[in-house]
């Protein structure tokens, strides 16, 4: 117990940092949707769900950066969950952010870590951003106090599954859709580059066909667009 008290006395939140983020195409309205939801007192947990490759992480990065650029009284913490030991990994990332991650941290049990994290966060108004959860994430087990209207804290997470949103008892589930055809074509053309598109009249037609095949999935459009940027003839 003494170690825990000593740690808590010396802990400090690290300053929030901006996260590198790709320019968003078609995600602006979702950023605004999440942000306006955050302003509502009755909303404590927000779930963002979509297919892999739609841009959930990019969207969460944008939310993080909006916190960074806006005046507010939240202590913001970012953590990536994973399929392998998600609670322990999130605990370690939160501990680093709130100044608990010192030499003795590794030797502590999961429950002890949860107690230390809880004792810091329960005194703060916090926003925890959790990226890429694959199944219900046990906030209490990780040491994160449940958001309530009284503490004013927030948890925002991304997942591929709407079921996970329901299991997390999210107050607001936001589905991120694939891009509509016009925006998909714009994103693809940006990645291919205007020089390539102007090399031959057929290239633009082929670009439209490729965009249809990608079905509005940003990751596919970006990856294939970049790969095609160096191809200057229709057969290529």
Automatic annotation (TrEMBL):
Domain NB-ARC residue range list: 28-197
Keywords associated with the record: ATP-binding, Nucleotide-binding, Plant defense
A Pfam family of this chain: NB-ARC
Positions in coiled-coil regions: none
PANTHER family found in the cross-reference section: NB-ARC DOMAIN-CONTAINING PROTEIN, NB-ARC DOMAIN-CONTAINING PROTEIN-RELATED
Protein name (database record): Probable disease resistance protein At1g52660
Organism: Gossypium hirsutum (Upland cotton)
Source lineage: Eukaryota, Viridiplantae, Streptophyta, Embryophyta, Tracheophyta
């Amino acid at each position: 117990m003494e170690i825990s008290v000593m740690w808590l006395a010396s802990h400090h939140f690290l300053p929030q940092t901006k996260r590198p983020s790709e320019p968003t195409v078609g995600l602006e309205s979702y950023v605004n949707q999440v942000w306006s939801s955050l302003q509502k007192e009755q909303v404590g947990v927000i779930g963002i769900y979509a297919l892999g490759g739609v841009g959930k992480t990019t969207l969460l990065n944008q939310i993080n950066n909006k916190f960074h650029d806006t005046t507010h009284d939240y202590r913001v913490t970012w953590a990536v969950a994973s399929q392998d030991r998600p609670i322990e990994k999130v605990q370690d990332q939160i501990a680093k952010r709130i100044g608990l991650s010192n030499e003795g941290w590794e030797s502590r049990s999961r429950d002890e870590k949860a107690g230390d994290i809880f004792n810091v966060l329960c005194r703060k108004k916090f926003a925890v951003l959790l990226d890429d959860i694959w199944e219900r994430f046990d906030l209490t087990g990780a040491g994160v106090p449940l958001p309530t209207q009284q503490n004013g804290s927030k948890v925002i997470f991304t997942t591929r599954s709407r079921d996970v949103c329901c299991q997390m008892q999210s107050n607001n589930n936001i589905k991120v859709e694939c891009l509509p055809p016009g925006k998909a074509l714009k994103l693809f053309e940006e990645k291919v580059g205007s020089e390539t598109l102007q090399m031959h009249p057929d290239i633009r037609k082929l670009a439209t066909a490729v965009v249809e095949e990608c079905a509005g999935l940003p990751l596919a459009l970006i990856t294939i667009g970049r790969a095609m940027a160096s191809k200057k003839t229709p057969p290529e």
